[in-house]
Design a protein that fits this description.
single chain, mainly beta, 8-stranded mixed β-sheet, 2 helices, 4% helix, disordered N terminus
Length: 476
């Protein structure tokens, strides 16, 4: 009992709300502080199985109304045996002047049922200055809402570094005067604030760092002959023609109109974006370059060589492929550009609706509308076509010109919707013929739709049994 009482007296400091400033003492520096009490090893409870709470948080950056995708967890969450180094060794997230820091709680109680204290600390060091010459600001608060109020109201007005530290305590029963604080993290600090421990006490914090830059990078690709990005480039920036199966070479340029940064730059064929091999995440795309670093206002032009496909196809170019290279790029709306690669010739096709059925009552008919869509799949300026539509009892031919600026698509109805049909199976066919040039893909020039009309069955009236009783084993 005397041992317990003396231990309780020794640990009066644990109740103190005076913070220990998280300034970093590495494992190889501990021997320089003889006699300092290490809180990780201190006995604060009669329960030998006492579990300390775990301190942790995550950071995310909001730029204007845009929430950037990167979420950063603080260091050594749940690890109270981590090796600690004296130099800055914490996870880093990037932000720009004018951004906001968002913080979320990842802490959890230990032997206690809930957290009761959050020791939140931070320091800002302007770019190029000594971090040790700048004050660590701290507060011990009773809930995470107050932590959010502190961190999320920090003003990112200068280039520099924000260091954010956290230690938490729960309500586990402890020796009188003691509190169950967290011991995980990657930062060891020393406090000399309690007169009962003149040689100090080692405390532990989890940390994450926000690097604030003066300007965000902004990468964008352009086609040959352009140095400014246009919204239309996402659909089609330029067209190149070549002979099917042969290589074609053309230039594309990557610009950076923001802060200096490194990004990736790659191309994939239309409809291959999600392919695990040839898509954005794959390793066998038709073209890509090594990561490239560009300063503000710099650009680099690449000569891209690909094989002309069998049918017209777009090749999409993208910078900052995963949205995280770099994560600080706020404007990612201009990272994408499409280049059309077409074999010599024109490709028109027809699209028919799916087969369907209807049901009519005896002696009745039904009306419906069949619509065929004729489309130009290549990127040539125009295509003159005739569309032959055949339906029960007749046919008709339509002539039209499909223009690129109309997405090369026209719709035709087979016949007036008042035309009615009774029970039976009917076939509707459509044929599109190119009147100028050579159609390089005739396989999509024909289509058909089958319509089945059923008649409701006239079932006989059900015979009812007038005898409500059920009799079995009847005998003569």
């Amino acid at each position: 009992m005397k041992k317990i009482l003396s231990l309780a007296l020794m640990l009066v400091f644990l109740f103190s709300a005076v913070p220990a400033y998280a300034d970093g003492i590495g494992n190889d520096e501990v021997s320089n502080y003889p006699g300092v009490v290490d809180y990780r090893k201190a006995q604060i409870s009669t329960d030998p199985n006492l579990v300390h709470p775990s301190a942790g948080f995550s950071l995310q950056i909001k730029s204007g109304e845009t929430l950037l995708p990167t979420v950063l967890d603080s260091a050594e969450i749940g690890n109270d045996q981590s090796r600690i180094v004296p130099e800055q060794d914490s996870p880093v997230i990037n932000a720009s002047i004018g951004d906001k820091i968002l913080i979320s709680d990842l802490s959890s109680p230990g032997s206690g049922s809930s957290l009761i204290y959050y020791d939140i600390q931070y320091r800002f060091t302007p770019q190029g200055e000594d971090r040790h010459k700048h004050e660590i600001k701290s507060a011990i608060v009773g809930d995470f809402g107050k932590v959010k109020n502190i961190i999320e109201n920090l003003n990112l007005e200068k280039e520099g570094t924000y260091e954010i530290f956290l230690c938490v305590a729960d309500n586990a029963p402890c020796i009188e005067g003691a509190t169950n604080w967290s011991t995980n993290g990657n930062v060891r600090s020393i406090s000399y604030n309690n007169k009962n421990f003149p040689k100090g006490v080692f405390w532990y914090f989890t940390e994450a760092v926000v690097e604030v830059g003066g300007e965000a990078p902004d990468f964008y690709p352009t086609p040959e002959g352009s140095n400014e990005y246009k919204e239309e480039y996402k659909n089609l920036a330029k067209i190149y023609e070549g002979k099917e199966g042969e290589p074609i070479t053309f230039p594309v340029t990557l610009y950076n109109c923001g802060a200096k940064a490194i990004t990736d730059f790659k191309a994939v064929w239309e409809r291959d974006g999600q392919d695990p091999v040839t898509g954005w995440k794959g390793t066998n795309s038709p073209w890509q370059t090594e990561p490239i670093e560009l300063a503000k206002g710099e650009s680099k032009t690449f000569d891209v060589t690909v094989t002309v496909p069998e049918h017209p196809r777009r090749l999409f170019f993208k910078a900052n492929i995963d949205g995280l290279t770099p994560a600080t790029e706020i404007n990612q709306d201009n990272n994408l550009m499409a280049i059309g690669i077409i074999p010599d010739g024109i490709d028109v096709g027809i699209r028919m609706p799916l087969d369907f059925s209807k049901t009519v009552k005896p002696g009745q008919k039904t009306n419906f509308t069949i619509t065929a869509t004729v489309q130009k799949h290549d990127f040539s300026p125009l295509a003159e076509v005739e569309t032959v539509l055949t339906y029960p009892g007749g046919s008709k031919t339509e002539h039209t010109t499909l223009y690129r600026n109309e997405q090369g698509e026209k719709s035709f109805q087979f016949y007036d919707s008042k035309y009615s049909l009774g029970p039976g199976t009917y076939k509707f066919t459509g044929q599109v013929n190119l009147l100028n040039g050579i159609d390089i893909n005739p396989s999509n020039n024909y289509g058909e739709t089958t319509v089945t009309i059923y008649q409701e069955k006239d079932y006989p009236a059900e015979k009812l049994n007038p005898d409500r009783e059920t009799r079995v084993d009847l005998r003569d």
